[in-house]
């Protein structure tokens, strides 16, 4: 297996420091460049289970991108680890309850230090037509479809093999959230008014779909502004776009469908309502532009030419 991989990792090292377990990884033969992850537990059995989960997901990612560099592996390792820690210790939405108790032990030997927001990076994929990454979409107020906060949107299509680890991460976070919601619903059923029927737990569609050719399209969105709670003014939230070397692009081009991208995002699980079932949102954080296909509005008539008719001649 290792003969297929450009970067070969050394045997992982699990150790304890101040009673908390840590996982250290590095490339084979390079001891000076390692990366360390706190597993947030005092229990060796829990640490071993989390380590196995991290290594399994990292292996899936690595086999999906055999030419991945150590830098690329480290970036994804920390995102993978955050997802595994969420599954083991609870959702990020509960992180605030651990604040100020980082030295305490939980009943199951888990450190109560708050979790950071988990971010993930997709493999490279192709943007679908209609992506909105240069100028936010504010809707069409004249037709009643206003979106005053604006929105950035991209649907990214990824090859089957590279998409599988990403699907697994999304499904695992969703299922962990749904199990917790259902357990809370059964423990404390919502009050029901006389003559009304309780809304039972149900699941909605997840933010990806498989295409006929086996590729998978993922849906990413985020608002382009927020309302300042003190001034009540709308403040912009510009979308960060970088080039293939990671350098920020000051003037984002008109990125169109067919462009090759990577997307950095976070996951936001939510519960069921009368409108939709429990599911996930993939919150767009930033974009790496690998290959640019620009949107050119003047080209929309190119396929509608009429032979022998009027032709404009510039002066």
From TrEMBL:
What's the domain of life for this entry?
Bacteria
Q: What is this protein called?
A: Uncharacterized protein
Q: Which organism is it from?
A: Pseudomonas helmanticensis
């Amino acid at each position: 297996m290792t003969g297929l991989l450009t970067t070969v990792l050394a045997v992982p090292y699990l150790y304890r420091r101040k009673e908390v377990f840590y996982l250290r990884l590095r490339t084979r033969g390079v001891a000076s460049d390692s990366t360390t992850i706190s597993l947030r537990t005092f229990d060796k059995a829990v640490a071993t289970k989390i380590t196995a989960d991290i290594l399994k997901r990292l292996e899936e990612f690595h086999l999906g991108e055999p030419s991945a560099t150590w830098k690329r592996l480290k970036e994804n390792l920390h995102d993978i680890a955050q997802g595994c820690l969420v599954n083991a210790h609870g959702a990020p939405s509960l992180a605030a309850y651990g604040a100020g108790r980082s030295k305490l032990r939980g009943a199951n030997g888990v450190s109560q230090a708050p979790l950071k927001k988990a971010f993930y990076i997709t493999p490279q994929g192709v943007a679908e037509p209609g992506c909105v990454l240069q100028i936010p979409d504010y809707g069409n107020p004249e037709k009643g479809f206003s979106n005053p906060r604006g929105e950035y949107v991209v649907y990214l299509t990824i090859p089957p093999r590279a998409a599988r680890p990403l699907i697994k991460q999304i499904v695992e976070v969703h299922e962990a959230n749904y199990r917790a919601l259902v357990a809370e619903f059964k423990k404390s059923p919502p009050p029901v008014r006389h003559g009304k029927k309780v809304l039972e737990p149900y699941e909605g569609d997840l933010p990806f779909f498989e295409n006929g050719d086996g590729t998978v399209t993922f849906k990413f969105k985020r608002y382009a502004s927020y309302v300042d709670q003190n001034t009540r003014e709308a403040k912009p939230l510009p979308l960060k776009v970088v080039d293939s070397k990671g350098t920020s692009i000051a003037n984002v081009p008109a990125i169109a469908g067919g462009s090759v991208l990577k997307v950095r995002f976070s996951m936001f699980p939510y519960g069921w309502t009368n409108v939709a079932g429990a599911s996930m949102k993939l919150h767009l954080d930033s974009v790496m532009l690998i290959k640019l296909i620009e949107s050119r509005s003047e080209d929309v008539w190119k396929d509608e030419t009429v032979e022998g008719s009027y032709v404009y001649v510039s002066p």
